Fold this protein.
Amino acid sequence: MLATYRPIFSLLRGTAFLLAASGLHNLLLPLRGQAEGFSTFALGLLGTAWAGGFVTGCIFAPRLVRRVGHVRAFGTFAASAAIIVLFTGLFINEAAWILSRVCTGFVMAGAFMVVESWLNEKATNENRGTVFGLYMMVTYASIMAGQMAVAAFDVRQSSLFMVSGILFCCSLIPTAISTAVTPRPLQEVSLDLRGLFANSPVSFMACLLIGVANGAWGTLGPVYGARIGISTAQIALMMSLVVIAGAAMQMPAGRLSDKTDRRYILAGAGFLAALIGVLAFSVEARSGSVVIALAACYGAMAYILYSLAVAHANDHADSSNFVKISGGLLLLYGFGTMIGPLLGSFLMARLRPEALFLATALPHFLLGCYTLVRVSQRAAVPPENKEAFNALPAERAVTPQAGLLDPRGPDDPEPEPEPETSDSTVSDVENERELVSSA
């Protein structure tokens, strides 16, 4: 049994380093920016810039991978991420950081796509669910470990930038020495807005609104914690528990949605997330334990919504379109995450730190209202025709390529034809494959 998964363990080790580095850097920047006196608008732009780069990377990174191969592309992405991390540690400047976040989002999208396609290549139809589950576990554990590492250092020093750079470099090693055959070419991502809306208006609007809320919280949550005066360790725990609480609640909510109209569960969770947001804004808590508890309750509702929306979309779609639909919804979510930080920074600058929760409550309330409106306009999918619910990894660490790895995806996806390349490029890729197979 272990021999079957040994090649996957090697890839997952590299993934763990990559996600830990990303989680550390994503939390470090807003905390250091807050300590340096960056404006609220600039701190919001850090999240918008990252989301813009990530969406762009999902669309264009496959072209680079096709040209140079998976091993070289992943090395380029991970090394670029390490360079960017060290750059942000050397130059503490709002404009430089915003520009660097665009680049970070792009290279992280490319790196995640390579890892997900590589895992998909090693998975079989029999163990695909196990591989996907392991990927989810590594995703959540690594992001949390990276975020908690912030508590071990002073965010005003350069040590954490160095640690993040080291972790990015460590992620290179498992893939560089892997003997796995180079995976099939990455699928290009297309965004068919009309087709996505026709398939499921609820999922279309839900993914966009969920992106707004999660983008605001993911970017400005650390800033909120710093401004109300809780410690760095408490901020790290707060951000981690939001994700972990959402992960823990996915399966109970998903199984409940399998037995009834998913839209009721989606609307109910949306309204509860909005209610918790309004409560957090009204209470003005300054106690670390109270804030962490409120954040965990918020995450338990807010971070199950995306998986429910994707599951509802797949209830209305043919199984052969799963990858296309899930990829398109992920890009819609990405567009929402560009808007969320701007909305959150606007409200926090004009009201008080807790106004961040108003920036999450508004899209969650709109999601609940729109979903209930649609319930009266479209019949529910019969339980026997539903796709079984499957939890999804954290949206900030997954790309459309994960659709091939998901157990709900096609059993044997057809590879796309190789693009025409020059003789020199073909020779380079063949040489790379020979080197990998002989390593």
